[in-house]
Sequence to fold (533 residues):
Amino acid sequence: MLALVNVFAEAAATDVNQAVAEATAKNPILPVMNEMFWTLVFFAILWALMKFVLLPPVMRTFKERADKVRDDQLAAEAADTARVDRLEQYEAGLAGARSEAVKLIEQARAEGDAERRVQVGAAEADVASLRTEAAAEIAGAKERARGELTSSITDIAVGAAEAVVQKSIDRSAQVRVVEDHVAQAGKN
Amino acid sequence: MIFGLEFPPIENLVEWPNWFGPKDSFYGFNKIAFISLVAIVATSVLFILGNRKRSMVPKGAQNLVESSVAFIRDGIVLETMGPDGMRYLPYLVSLFFFILIGNIFEVIPFFHMPANARMAGPAVLALITWAYYIAVGLKHQGPKYFINAIAPPGVPKALYILVVPIEFLSTFIVRPFSLAVRLFANMLAGHILLVTFSVLCITLFTASLLALVLPLSFFMLVALTGFEVMVAFLQAYIFTILAAVYIGSSMHAEH
Amino acid sequence: MSILAQATEVAVDKATAQAIAGATNAGMAYGLAAIGPGIGIGYLVGQSVQAMARQPEAAGMVRTTMFLGIAFTEALALIGFVVFILLKFV
Fold:
């Protein structure tokens, strides 16, 4: 088949030059002058328009948007820092108030303690005086009772002894003996 | 002619008579030129609508404009050139919109002709890009740009015999050529594909048994229309990103 | 083949012969030109998908590079297409 095609090609080759010369006028591949001219003109116009009129506003919008995003970002970061600062301040204030409160409580507690100590001391003093009074009273009563007891015991003992020996006994000596005894008993 | 299928000659598909201006003059204004004009007008209207009421939270036209510009900025400029390439953004944005709108006319009713299926548009854009990246190279590196571009350092001396012609060809000849041919051939192929299926649908629209194939053909036409919308976008993206890569490679000497 | 056989029988004139040769060579040129880029793009996209699956965070970079690679690879097929148009219609 290729050989056959070559035969045709050779047959055609004789006036191929003429055919090509004829074909160049309507060659669908080659660029045509008027279309090239208009394409060049219109593309140059579009390029100039794009460079000076159409594109700059778009780029400005991009830039504004980027700036706004950056500014907002910075503002947000600043707000965040301010928030942290305020939080720290607040916490510091809170800690101060808390320590103040602790101090007040401590003070109140100390005052209370002192007051209580004073009260307790007074009460204890009262109690002590009452106790001394009572003790004095008791001692007096004891003395009196011992005196009474001594005289009555002396009487009984002297009477009993007189009854035993059938004669009067020196009362004063007996009194001394009984007193000694009672005093000894009181000691024991 | 197969089964009465008459495919129109290619001149009828891609060549358009002048609306005004003499036939072979350099300023003859035809459909292709009109589509290029629409590309400017549509882009300008879109941007003016988008810029009219600028707000921090974009919506409507502003949203569309901003997402396209952000797409080109983030997906193309920053990806291939870094922050230094921001000054070439206007060129790349106009390139993208010019090509996209020229391409999208492939599927717009009553036009059905991608402006870039004519070699003129891609050739002009590729030549402008070629001149632009050479200019950027000269501006950033001075006359040493040509030496840096042709003879990359770090190659064994003997290999320069091989490397210099290859680098010269690939940087100064193949780059603009492939840039133009890629866009042109993609759009022309898509255009011919759509024409083929349209012609097939029209031919099959008969009372014969062949009409049974018509739904398949029509489905292919619809599917390919969607596919061509994607191709239109993709080719605009690829042209723009390649222009960005070339400009970026001129900004710094190769290492 | 049948078209060619018919063509030899009816002793075509030179223009038709050229058209037939052009059409045949055009189809062959495009068919051959599409093989390499087809394999190349398939391999490229497959590897890119693998890369994206392994490192989803690098997907954007991989996608950009993938499109660049597709653009470079596809150029070969497109030059084949241009040759097809040149052979077929010019």
